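Project standup — Tuesday

K.O.: blocked on the structure for the chain from last sprint. Re-posting the sequence here as requested.
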Amino acid sequence: MNVIFVGAHQDDEMNCLGTLIKYSRRGDRVGVITISNGDKGAQYDPAMPHEEVARIRIAESTTIMEELGGTYHCLGQEDEQIVDNREIREGLTRLLRQLRADVVITCPPQDYNPDHYIAGEIAYHAVMLTTVRTMYEDVPILDATPAMYYTDTCAGIQFEPMFYVDISDVFAYKCELLRYFKTQMINMQVFGGWDLVTFSEITNRFRGLQCGVRYTEAFRAETRWPRARPGVLLP
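H.V.: unblocked you, prediction finished:
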């Protein structure tokens, strides 16, 4: 399958990175798309030019996806200013068609950052448009509407899982990849009081406790037509 994560920022995939690793290891093709360029993600050094922050963060995500044999794409909106408009819907729809997406994972509607849930709303619309024959006719439509899943929220707040993916066997590698986000390992200590590895150790262990294994990532399926698919396509 072709599995695509659509997020707002470079590091939003931390809530499904273990799952992307499992997809990749079983032979599925994985990709990450971010709506923003991440240019506001240097609260540890406010003097750093925004263009440089964006360049570094894009490079970090690119490196991680190269490690997984996947692809990274940035749609370039300004960080913390994501808007749902005609241009971004078209850009994401075209990209999902080009990548032949079978599964789309994105940020949940109840997350803390407006960039996150707006990115999820953009993904929600674009998923449907991937099979609309009367739009963007120069890019072939998909054979079927991709299945759609939402990741956990920040710290698991106001999120009731429908599915758990056991990532115990890949958790150490997930943490290794998260450390490639060097800027955000520092940035989140300043902004949130934790780094990405600490966050994952707590959140993934908490979700693992709920289902009787060491570490899991939690998901909800989007069931509104035509995004629901029979069965569970998570690894």
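K.O.: great, moving the ticket to review. DSSP finds seven helices and seven strands in the chain. Helices lie at 17-25, 50-67, 86-98, 114-129, 171-178, 182-191, 196-211.
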